[in-house]
Design brief:
Layout lengths: L10 E6 L20 E2 L2 E2 H11 L8 E5 L3 H8 L4 E4 L6 H8 L1 H4 L3 E6 L3 E3 L7 H7 L7 E7 L11 E9 L1 H4 L9 H11 L3 E5 L3 E3 L4 H11 L4 E3 L4 E2 L2 E7 L4 E2 L2 E7 L4 E2 L4 E3 L1 E4 L3 E4 L4
Parallel strand pairs: 1-4, 1-6, 4-5, 8-10, 12-14, 13-15, 14-16, 15-17, 16-18, 16-19
Antiparallel strand pairs: 2-3, 6-9, 7-11, 8-9, 19-20
Helix pairs in contact: 3-7
Amino acid sequence: MPASPSGPGGVCAVLLAAGEGQRLRPLTELLPKALCPVGNVPLLDRAMARVAGAGLAGPESVAVNASYLADQVAAHVGDRAHVSLEPGGPLGTAGALGQLRDWIAGRGVLVGNSDAYLAGLAEPPGPDIAGLLDGWDGETVRLLGRPAEPGSRGEFGVWRFAGFSLLPWRYVRDLPARKAELVREVWRPAEAAGELRVIGFRGTYLDTGTPATYLAANLHAAGGGVLVADGATVAGTLDKAVIGAGARVLGTVTRSVVWPGGYVGPDEHLIDAIRAGDGMTVSGAPR
């Protein structure tokens, strides 16, 4: 029987936004990774739009966990979702669900990494994760997977995890409210029991965990061209760039991102980089 997105025995969504984003520092010293903009939209908002496209929205149906710079995450979410605070430090992907046990209350859980950048093969947002929900029996564990690169092996045979999973209540109800990870607590046990299914996704997936992948996600969101937010001032030259609201670009920006409120001086040429403010520049060049 297909899962219903609401009601007893239905499905809820948990978006994971508690991590410190250490590989994105120093950018994540300013913003939690979940709020870093991709294509001028915070990653968390992209994730919320994605689950809304699958019929899940509001604090009864969607929860967001927060730990690192939790006040920023909570203020940004507002009343759009239930916020689960982890003041002692991130509880991990499984611990976050353990702490939310009473809120989940018997439902299946669509779990998403808020830093996952997904671009599906169709619009509106949602057709990618809709594959996880389509025809789900409420018993098996499902993962969204991208094909591994030719000649390499993914985490699950020929598949690499693509940011979202769907878990039945029976795998969630006993998860501990302490630091623990889904790969050990749920995914591998389900795989060993023959109860894990990978749903193939052939769109674009990037985890945005490094400056290089974060920059790549932004440039993809710009469609290989230029994306300029309302309120930005551009008097220079742009080539494959994303410019945030309130930014001022007087120089040249090539394959780069300028955060909201950022500044590029008239004698500067920003290449393969992320600019925050008027003095922080992080290289996004592939290594």
